[in-house]
Amino acid sequence: MTEAASTTIETIDIQRLLKLLPHRYPFLMIDRIIEARGDEFGIGLKNVSVNEPQFQGHFPERPIMPGVLLIEGMAQTAGAICIHAHAFAGKAAPLVYFMSIDKAKFRKPVTPGDRVEFHMTKTNHRRNMWWYAGRALVDGTLVCEAEIAATLVVEDESAKA
Q1: Structural domain for 105, as ranges
Q2: pLDDT grade for 160, boundaries at 50, 70 and 90
Q3: Rounded distance, CA 73 to CA 62, Å?
Q4: Percent of the chain with pLDDT strictly greater than 70
Q5: How many structural domains compose the chain?
Q6: For the range 60-66, what are the long-range contacts, defined as Cβ-Cβ under 8 Å and sequence gap of 24 or more?
Q7: Rounded CA separation 81/118 (Å)
Q8: What is the per-residue pLDDT across 98-131, written as a single tens digit (0 to 9) for each?
Q9: For residues 123 and 70, what is the distance between their CA atoms, to the nearest angstrom?
Q10: Residue 56, phi then psi, degrees to nearest 5
Q11: What's residue 158's pLDDT?
């Protein structure tokens, strides 16, 4: 990645996200990325709706976004900016596999009607592994934070034949 690419601020709409990530409804946890600076930093958005399937059981009388789905939104944001920043010329987008979640803390509940921002900052990169520090915010208030690590795996098409 060039220095210019790491300082350019980009956005990634839902159509591009669907090309970058294998996730689909109901497990796609981000609606768009409003800011991406290479693989260094990105902000993903999730508009939380009461119509989402997790609220049928978590909890019907007081719907609260499960913390694990907030962590998943962080991971999807990091994965999307990473794949987007590293154009895999002529190859299918790689799959992103979680390696670890550390220091996860849940500060406030997220409920339908909230707009969650996933702020992801790269802390390290080695070969095909990336580490990010993440913060989830609603209206500027910290609701969740964690450190995550993932690896990018480019599937070998010849191995499938």
Answers
A1: 3-160
A2: low
A3: 21
A4: 89
A5: 1
A6: 63/111, 63/112, 64/109, 64/110, 64/111, 65/109, 65/110, 65/111, 65/114, 65/116
A7: 12
A8: 999 999 999 999 999 999 999 999 999 999 999 9
A9: 19
A10: -65, -30
A11: 47
126 SS3 class: strand
Q: What is the pTM of this model?
A: 0.90
Q: Which two tokens stand for residue 117?
A: 């921002």
Residues 6+ apart with CB under 8 A from 31: 14, 45, 46, 47
Structural contact between residues 44 and 33, judged by C-beta atoms closer than 8 angstroms? yes
We report the CATH number of the domain holding residue 126 as: 3.10.129.10
Residue 27 structure tokens: 């497990």
Reading the block at residue 75, the tokens are 């991971």
- Using CA atoms, how far apart are residues 62 and 111, in angstroms rounded to an integer? 8
Which residue(s) pair with 145 in the sheet?
A: 105, 135
Candidate list 58, 84, 86, 119, residue with the active-site label = 58
**Cβ atoms of 41 and 57 closer than 8 Å:** no
Q: Catalytic: 125?
A: no
